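Thread: Modeling a multi-component assembly for a lab meeting

Hi all, long-time lurker, first post. My supervisor asked me to bring a structural picture of a complex we are working on to next week's group meeting, and I have zero experience with this. I have the sequence lines for every component (1482 residues in total). Could someone generate the structure of the whole assembly? Inputs are pasted exactly as I received them:
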Amino acid sequence: MQLDLTDATWTDVRDADTDLALLPVGSTEQHGPHAPLGTDALHAETVAEAGAERYDGTVAVAPTISVGIAEEHRQFPGTLWVSPDTFRRYVRDVVGSLAYHGLDRVVVVNGHGGNVPALGEVTATITRHDDAYAVPFTWFDAVDDHGSDMGHGGPLETALLRATHPELVREDRIEEAREGASEGWGDWVSSTNLAHDSAEFTENGVVGDPGAGDADRGEELRELAANALDRLLQAVAERDVSRPADR
Amino acid sequence: MQLDLTDATWTDVRDADTDLALLPVGSTEQHGPHAPLGTDALHAETVAEAGAERYDGTVAVAPTISVGIAEEHRQFPGTLWVSPDTFRRYVRDVVGSLAYHGLDRVVVVNGHGGNVPALGEVTATITRHDDAYAVPFTWFDAVDDHGSDMGHGGPLETALLRATHPELVREDRIEEAREGASEGWGDWVSSTNLAHDSAEFTENGVVGDPGAGDADRGEELRELAANALDRLLQAVAERDVSRPADR
Amino acid sequence: MQLDLTDATWTDVRDADTDLALLPVGSTEQHGPHAPLGTDALHAETVAEAGAERYDGTVAVAPTISVGIAEEHRQFPGTLWVSPDTFRRYVRDVVGSLAYHGLDRVVVVNGHGGNVPALGEVTATITRHDDAYAVPFTWFDAVDDHGSDMGHGGPLETALLRATHPELVREDRIEEAREGASEGWGDWVSSTNLAHDSAEFTENGVVGDPGAGDADRGEELRELAANALDRLLQAVAERDVSRPADR
Amino acid sequence: MQLDLTDATWTDVRDADTDLALLPVGSTEQHGPHAPLGTDALHAETVAEAGAERYDGTVAVAPTISVGIAEEHRQFPGTLWVSPDTFRRYVRDVVGSLAYHGLDRVVVVNGHGGNVPALGEVTATITRHDDAYAVPFTWFDAVDDHGSDMGHGGPLETALLRATHPELVREDRIEEAREGASEGWGDWVSSTNLAHDSAEFTENGVVGDPGAGDADRGEELRELAANALDRLLQAVAERDVSRPADR
Amino acid sequence: MQLDLTDATWTDVRDADTDLALLPVGSTEQHGPHAPLGTDALHAETVAEAGAERYDGTVAVAPTISVGIAEEHRQFPGTLWVSPDTFRRYVRDVVGSLAYHGLDRVVVVNGHGGNVPALGEVTATITRHDDAYAVPFTWFDAVDDHGSDMGHGGPLETALLRATHPELVREDRIEEAREGASEGWGDWVSSTNLAHDSAEFTENGVVGDPGAGDADRGEELRELAANALDRLLQAVAERDVSRPADR
Amino acid sequence: MQLDLTDATWTDVRDADTDLALLPVGSTEQHGPHAPLGTDALHAETVAEAGAERYDGTVAVAPTISVGIAEEHRQFPGTLWVSPDTFRRYVRDVVGSLAYHGLDRVVVVNGHGGNVPALGEVTATITRHDDAYAVPFTWFDAVDDHGSDMGHGGPLETALLRATHPELVREDRIEEAREGASEGWGDWVSSTNLAHDSAEFTENGVVGDPGAGDADRGEELRELAANALDRLLQAVAERDVSRPADR
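Re: Modeling a multi-component assembly
Sure thing. I ran the full set together rather than chain by chain. Output:
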């Protein structure tokens, strides 16, 4: 059950009985000619809400951080970003304020691949050095076999949009999107990606086929992600979060 | 006319012909027992959208930064904050990414008094040292005579909520809100506020009478703020933003 | 009674019985063709000494920080500045060292408008996170009705110089100063100042009429400021500075 | 062909004709009771030298950075670490000094999984904002099918040590190492690793079977890694490293 | 000839024809029971003024930075300090603002041993990376054979005070000062000082005999230091400050 | 007796009974046409090992930090450096991790003059603010009368190389090295070094005569340095490292 920290009053939070919080983080960045810049933020929010609703207990849900680490897409107009360092500081501070109120078991619900390394780092820092336990959850890593289809502005993200924000998918540009898409992410030699910017390997920003996922698939993805998040919340709620003893 | 950077695609931004952008910033913090924690973020968004719609030309609107500088309210559960330094970095980075795409005349639309000093500083830094011109606009400073009624979770903020998000105002707690409110902000001696935290002078977080503003007043506030922002956008669009010559 | 930390020995400080300190901060920046660059630092020092003398008890007075936040005047030769971040660090460190010796109730006596936002921020940070209580005191905000006349290098500052450092006022340039002055500070649209640098609105750096304040007025200003600071010291000395309990 | 920057003189570097450099980075951290703390640094050095020798051209090899990001192993005595931020700064500065001399195509040869996210970030930052092109190369990601056997102090690392530094493998503790080992890395729920420290899931620090790799396998690993690095150097030498145009 | 940046107006600086500036930096720290906390700042100011007066040309003199790096004396009440990092930033920013106006050959006139390493570092950084040339000048290193007598609150510093600020020397505590003094600075083994704080080796903060220098010696010191600074100003004025070519 | 933290296992460190550690730090920088870039790192390592072996007790020896503060040599190809700030952070973090395991009496064994000021600062910071006691030891300051012969790539450094790494001394370039050498370090006026880069005063990077020290002298230097370090370790082991009481 979600306690939305935008809508709730401070007295509602005072009266709630939980130490669990979700912090949705996304990105505002190109997702091809057919999908909105806000895709990753919208998806993080969608999954956070669905997971919180599924969970048998109260979970505070913080407002979404909509701009993340996306400089790799800077060649595409409208892409917004902050530096990795700024992003980590912002997330760490927000989690610190959640923990100040006893909401000290925090799952950062993430909708953007570019945020993953920074979230791994900052949740470890928080857990080791601050007064909170935090872990990241990236929704498209927790949707079973669908994961291998991820791409960028591709089958999964477009499908989930069709289920949740169909008006934001430009169906009349899908063909164009497909044609300018690259097949895979990056430009690899010896397991090293030589490309630091997505414009080095994709013409229109798309990776994968945005036509390969309809609204039904989108519903399934939401379901899978929400269930995975629910299981994670249960595990986080029960976990012994004290740090292990020195050997 | 607003170009919403959450909903638009990168090709939409590429095809738009503007150098103007709005960046709404708010806060997620106590607003008494009757008003939502998200009040300041919601209001910043409301005003930014209304101002952009009124403006005769295209204005990009970035996603709202919902957590700002609010440690002064930390004693009230649910209040979120980042440090002033983190806030400035985040705003500066986002504006920098807007400017990267030529959206280099930016008005930061602000809904929270606690953000004002940091926004003055960071917009000056951006204008002097980065490739953009930026100014802050705090809506409740631009609503004519209403301004003196501001308070916190008081007449103005509650009125605007009644006009835009009536379901988020707990009307049944207005009496309680009024009774625990303080009359003014701070604890002053010799023009110095001795109180660094709001809990030093308000019992329930409210300053002013939340009953003193109905939805009609809220509509008027939105109208006034939107008009003021429209005028500001015109001035920013036309301004010679080159720095003056050394004397 | 002032304990001057430049003149005192460490044994004098050891033997003093007080937890009160003043830290004067000013600026070295253009004040028109008639007034010295050091005006703000000199005034902060004047007021700090006068206030300490008036106070019934011992008050340590730290050496003046003469360079503050003044990049807005950079187009005028001789103006010195540090970044806001550097300024906050410097003030915070100095206050930390005062507090190390038990001088942990500190009033930062300020002579420069450009320092105000940073001082509000850093004194709050110190009070919440360090082992001291600190507040800022800006002298020209505490001189009753005179305040509205402030300007820059205008009536008040010139008057106070005439009372305390008459040799530093170039009376033969007053006419020139008046003629190149602007009437108000900034360039405003919708309550937003579009000008980040003073050179955008004043030809010679002056705001207001530097002829409108003689030495008598200067003496009155010193008296008013000293009394206000005395009252503030009393309040700070008696204040319960423990942070309020969480709600 | 390697130009060792520890052994060479400055005149040797001046006379060399190359823009390629390798920067080996490792870690000094627990590798079970049988393998030395320096395993990751030794391996990075081994692979860098072997790759440089294989390459048909001159490659400068910087001295190894032996302490990396390893706080996750802190419960095991002797583990050394720096913060991720310090690590990134150190690597960025060193690469900057290489580039100052025209060695501006840099491969960071990495021997430690915990360094991977930070190296991805810092090489992107360098490439986008500094005067160099940099990519990371993690040797155990480039050894074909062996990769899935990685573990920690497990088959691969122990095998490579047996080939290169047999005297540092405590063969008499292999049985003990095997018995206290965990099977996999981490403690996973919904694709999220709940464990931030290795001591949460391994008793003696080992993951995988350290007996499952003899010196022959070690030689094969060195060969595979050297070949992969050689191919990468060729690709880096020929790559157009200018950043792509804005769309 | 000195152009005092506290007393001058901006028009005076505009009309001056020089690129030379002095920035006096001192410390506010214990100097025994007989000498004032401000000794180092006063001496830096004395020497800067005397050197500027001697120099045949105009030299701008910035206001004194009175608090430096002195945490080593923290056990003695009244000692003030900032962190080395804060000190470097403050000096760098001030020098940057001097250089903005073309005062880009700066001698930092120093009165405190504890500032020496940081000044060496920051002047090198400024010279290499900013738009200015800067060097430090520590007065007691430039007084010929007297130098070996330096101590702390000892012969030299007390003598110079007797010449310049006799009212600040507590002559009636000289005997006490002498008795509690240590003979040398530090606690040395193998050329390493094991003591990080002065309280580890001096009882009352004094090193050396404060009785061993009368006002005449003080005058001689001022003369020697002023002459040395004059020579340095000449050398700085004439120096080719372009950085040498790469080899 | 040395416990080498590269070769040891974590269980070896667990079983050792000591709180003493050495951290060798050097530089990779020009040492003339005849001596290797790695001279300073090699010498720090040599001395650390010899000192640890001499000491009657166990001393952990961390891996060498090979790149230090050497921007002053940047005009000479192959010279590597990090900023002073990065260097201090790296050293502080590594010492912090040593102390985490109880190795909290640390001697930083230094082979490079350019590191000296930063090491003085960071060891003081560590000792005052972290959970460790640290001091720097610079080998060439502890070799009795030899010290005055130091130079750069000169008699001492070349002699020690001849004793420890004769294959790295290009004997056939000694004549050339001598001819392009300068006699002293720097370009001095009034005790101030006007040169921030070594290229301002030495043609080939050498200071002093590299022919003036044979392998025997090198052995003597190693002996002297090792003995000095042994004495220092004894003093550090026995020292009361609690900070002195406030006066």
